[in-house]
Each structure stands twice: as C-alpha cells, then as structure tokens.
Design a protein that fits this description.
The chain is an alpha/beta fold. It is built from 15 helices and eleven strands. The longest helix is centred in the C-terminal third of the chain and has 22 residues. The structure holds D-malate.
C-alpha cells in the first residue's frame, strides 16, 4: 500500500514538472493607469490568474496599478520597447500612434450600448485591426475591454443643452476625434494625459472631463465634480495591448497560453461589466452628483456625425469603417 502511494506521488510529481517545464520561467509586467477594481484591473487579474495557474508557476505576473508605470501613452511607448509586456489602454490613448483605431472613436458609431461588444467579438474585424495596429505602432491589441458611454462631468453647472458647454474648460484624451467633436459642439477642449486629470480637476485647472460612470466611481470624481451629463457619443473601449517584440519572441506554447489568458481576462471583464453601469450611476447619485439628460441630443448627433469625413484619410481604410458599420447594424451577426 505504502509503495503504491509513493509510486503514485512520484508519478504525480513527474507529471507536474513535465507540465511546468513546457513554459520558460519568466516575469510578465502588466500595467494600467487605473486603480484596483477598475474595469482594467478586472481584466488584468483574470490574465494574471490564468497565466500563473496554467503555466504551473513558471510565469510570474507583476501588476502595476494607478499609473505607477506612467500614464497610458507612456504605457504604449513601453510596450513598443518591451519594457512592459501587457497594458490595458483606452482606445483614444492608443489611437495617436495607431490611426486605424480612430474607427472605434468615431462619434456616435455605437447607437446601442451592446454595439461595442458586438463589433469586438467579431474575430475577422479584430484580427485585421490588430495587424494594422502592429504595423502602425508595434503594439498588438490581443483583446478588448469595455465600459459604458462616456458622459461629461463638471464642477460648474448642469449641462442640458449644447450652449451650456460655453465657458467650460473640459479635458479630453489626445484622440483627434474627441478634440474635433468638442470643437464641432462649439468649445476648444483641453487634451491632457489621463494620469493628470484628477489633480487638474481638484486644482481647478480644468472644470470637467468626460468618461463613463465606471471611471467616475473608480476615481471618486464626486469629490471634485458635481454634474454629470448623459451623452451617448462614444462607448468606452480599451485595448488589452501586448508588446509585439515580446509576443513574437514567445515560443508557440507560451504564445498560445498568452492568447488564452488575454481571452480569459477579456471574458471576465465583459461579464463583470454587464451589470456595473447602473450600480456606478447610483453610487455617483448617492455621493451627491446630479445626473442630467440632454434636451437637444439630436443637434449633438448631427454636428458630431458631420465631422466623420475629416478622419477618412487619417484612418486610411474605408472598407474597415464600412465593415464596422455592417457588423453593428446586423447586431453582431
Ligand atoms: C481617458 O479618458 O484617458 C480614459 O478613458 C481613461 C481610462 O483609461 O479609463
């Protein structure tokens, strides 16, 4: 009996070491400029768990939260040089170095909250997109994370119609589509790195910004902002981007494991995100924020849709814009 137990244990150990030996020991560094429990972190924790468990401990994942590796554009640069292996980044912060991604930030591309998921689960679309991003900035969006619509917050007054924007200093990301859409709505927005936004709001350098209810919750924007205006011009999407240098150096087994881990992190985040928006909105209200709808939304839509042609040359791929529209129209079928 004892002999059989020892034999059984030795076999199990042998199998375990054979399993672990399939993956080279390495440390993978993953960063986000966002805090614990943000949609970024939910995806990252899913990736970490998968990589560490399935590699039998051969891969160790180090996570850097809260911008400890710099803001999102710094993270994109670090991916390009393989200082970081994975980062989750808002699409508008990758787009300055990968113009094809401006497709996803075209204002009012997504009329329904489910449209971003429908588009980004389409493998044909996302694979083509990924290859173009690689050719443009040497990072690869291997997966995608979702948030809700980007709403405007500010500390000065309720915005219920377009003319209420006048006089407000509003921050946007450096995405050209965001800059142009606010110009079309009549104000000059202030592009600023994400990591600087909370302090700038606190110090009154800017009056407001735009981001989904998730972000309002994760960053406790109610401490520095009073009014939210529900706008539906852009669904928050973010790339789970990997360093292309690193990815191409991985042996086939590890590469497959990384792909599975990212898919698993994406899946975890998509499930988590589904019921979060209402909770985050309620939390903002509970913390004293006033949430207003727009009285003149058709005018916002009309002005925003009119700027699309300005980006066709920059995006440089009319077929992919059309493909995105077709997928969205068909509800992802
Ligand atoms: C931004 O406004 O820069 C982003 O939406 C922040 C984020 O990554 O969540």
């Amino acid at each position: 009996m004892r002999k059989r137990l020892i034999l059984g244990l030795s076999l199990a150990c042998l199998q375990l070491s054979a399993f672990a030996a399939a993956y080279k020991e390495q440390t993978v560094m993953i960063a986000t400029a966002n805090p614990a429990n943000s949609q970024h972190d939910i995806a990252i924790q899913g990736i970490k768990k998968y990589l560490e468990e399935k590699s039998g401990g051969a891969i160790t994942v180090k996570v850097f939260l809260n911008g400890t590796m710099g803001d999102e554009q710094a993270n994109v640069k670090q991916l390009r040089t393989n200082e970081l292996q994975i980062a989750t980044v808002f699409t508008g912060n990758i787009a300055p170095s990968a113009p094809i991604l401006n497709i996803l930030t075209l204002p009012y591309l997504f009329p329904d909250p489910s449209d971003a998921a429908n588009l980004l689960k389409n493998k044909d679309f996302t694979s083509k997109l990924a290859e173009i991003v690689v050719s443009q900035n040497r990072t690869r969006p291997l997966g995608w994370i979702l948030g809700g619509y980007r709403h405007i917050t500010n500390a000065k007054h309720a915005i219920t119609k377009m003319s209420d924007l006048q006089g407000l200093k509003l921050r946007v990301s450096p995405s050209v589509t965001q800059l142009e859409v606010f110009r079309a709505w009549g104000i000059e927005p202030h592009p600023m790195a994400w990591a600087e936004v909370f302090n700038a709001l606190q110090q009154g350098v800017i009056d407001g910004q735009e981001n989904p209810f998730f972000t309002i919750r994760d960053n406790k924007f109610w401490e520095v902002q009073k009014y939210v205006t529900e706008l539906h011009y852009m669904l928050w999407t973010g790339g789970i981007a990997v360093s292309e240098i690193w990815y191409q150096r991985l042996d086939p087994d590890t590469k497959a494991l990384v792909e599975e881990a990212v898919a698993s992190g994406q899946d975890t985040e998509w499930k988590w995100v589904a019921d979060q928006e209402d909770l985050c909105k309620q939390l903002a209200i509970d913390h004293g924020m006033t949430v207003n709808p727009l009285e003149d939304e058709p005018a916002w839509v009309e002005k925003a849709r009119a700027i699309w042609p300005k980006f066709y040359d920059l995006i440089g791929n009319q077929e992919m814009i059309q493909q995105a529209l077709d997928i969205i129209k068909s509800g992802g079928k």
